[in-house]
Write a structure and sequence with these properties.
This protein has about 325 residues and is α/β, with parallel strands linked by helices. The protein is about 35% helix and about 20% strand. The chain has 2 domains: about 1-115 and about 285-300, Rossmann fold (3-Layer(aba) Sandwich); about 120-275 and about 310-330, Dihydrodipicolinate Reductase, domain 2, CATH 3.30.360. The strands form 3 sheets. It has a 9-stranded mixed beta sheet with strand order 13-12-11-10-6-9-8-7-14, with helices on one face. Strand 3 (about 60-65), helix 4 and strand 4 (about 85) form a beta-alpha-beta unit. Pfam families: GFO_IDH_MocA, GFO_IDH_MocA_C3. InterPro entries: Gfo/Idh/MocA-like_OxRdtase_N, Gfo/Idh/MocA_oxidoreduct, GFO_IDH_MocA-like_dom, NAD(P)-bd_dom_sf. This is Oxidoreductase.
Length: about 325
């Protein structure tokens, strides 16, 4: 992931020249040195002790690209050194530790935000724009299918709740962004299908209740071979006036009711407008740019930890529901 972040920082027009890297930290300094060489980062501090490197370099920002279990201590260390912190998803390994991060950032007077980069893909932004326009009427349901046969190797294949915790956070955050309202409850069934190469929780089906009588249906699997969906999933957004379909790539299909008679009412096609502000549709670069803009302006970034914890709460409520086999309320 550090490669993706450094690519965005050094190559993307939104970010070029805005950040100077002064140090890289890894448990294995040789890995950090190799990354520094790959991006021609000279005259920087390389080390395995984050506290020591922060003390030596005194940076304004800390970019957190560690595994989830290491995140709470890393964020706390960064904030203690008066750094603004941008952290990979998921925000934290537990809801309690996420809440602690929010309080620590508030106490330090620093910005802590989360890289929910898929919120910034063009399709997700365009859907939100269409919903806000009222063209679909009042949204009644958001439906999403995510089926990918992903062979990562490494830590993911040993994780518990791997789909919900490591991947579904993207989709759940996107649904919350589309709905523009808060989740209130969930019922979830989590499984590890026969033939799964994951240790636990490679598939899940969840029904979320949102405010404003919106239902969000999630179906997903990371061990589904033969017909991969997009990494952004495929979507059906149903409103009182019409329906939008998105394949997760570039294909949109939307219709709304145009007649008042007949068993099936007459329909008319509905255009899904392009985003007027392309700076909000550049994935990692948009997240980082929003983070930098917020620091400079004193505002909160769109993916601030204090907001992103609501998406994380959806994940942990789904995990709890699957464990208890019952509906679980969501309150953050």
């Amino acid at each position: 992931m550090s490669k993706g972040w450094l690519n965005a920082l050094t190559e993307h027009p939104l970010l070029k020249g805005r950040v100077r890297v002064v140090g890289l930290v890894d448990l294995d300094p040789n890995i950090a040195q190799a990354r520094a060489s790959e991006f021609s980062l000279s005259d920087i501090v390389i080390g395995s002790d984050l506290d020591a490197v922060l003390a030596e370099t005194k940076p304004d920002l800390l970019f957190d690209v560690v595994v989830p279990s290491a995140r709470p201590a890393l964020v706390a260390t960064g904030l203690a050194h008066r750094c603004h912190v941008l952290t990979e998803k998921p925000m934290a390994p537990t809801l309690e530790s996420a809440g602690a991060m929010v309080e620590q950032a508030k106490a330090a007077g620093r910005v802590h935000a989360v890289v929910q980069n898929r919120r910034y893909v063009p399709g997700v932004r365009r859907i939100r724009q269409l919903i806000e326009s009222g063209a679909l009427g009042q949204v009644t349901s958001i439906n999403c299918d995510f089926f990918v046969g992903a062979h990562f190797g490494g830590f993911r294949e040993e994780m518990e709740n791997v789909l919900l915790l490591d991947m579904a956070i993207h989709t759940l955050d996107a649904a919350r962004f589309m709905a523009g309202t808060a989740p209130r409850a969930v019922y979830c069934l989590e499984t590890n299908p026969p033939g799964s190469w994951y240790a636990h929780g490679a598939a899940a089906n969840a029904i979320f209740e949102f405010e404003d009588d919106i239902v969000f249906n999630y179906r997903g699997s990371w061990s589904a071979e033969g017909a991969n969906t997009s990494w952004e999933a495929s979507w059906r957004i149903v409103g009182t006036k019409g329906t939008l379909l998105w394949d997760g790539y570039d294909k949109f299909e939307a219709h709304r009711v145009a007649g008042t008679e007949g068993f099936f009412r007459a329909l008319e096609p509905l255009d899904v407008p392009e985003m007027p502000d392309r700076s909000k549709t550049e994935g990692h670069a948009s997240v980082i740019a929003d983070f930098l803009d917020a620091i400079e302006s004193g505002a909160q970034p769109e993916t601030a930890g204090s907001d992103n914890i609501k998406s994380l709460a959806m994940v942990f409520a789904a995990i709890e529901s699957a464990k208890l086999k019952q509906r679980v309320s969501i309150s953050v």
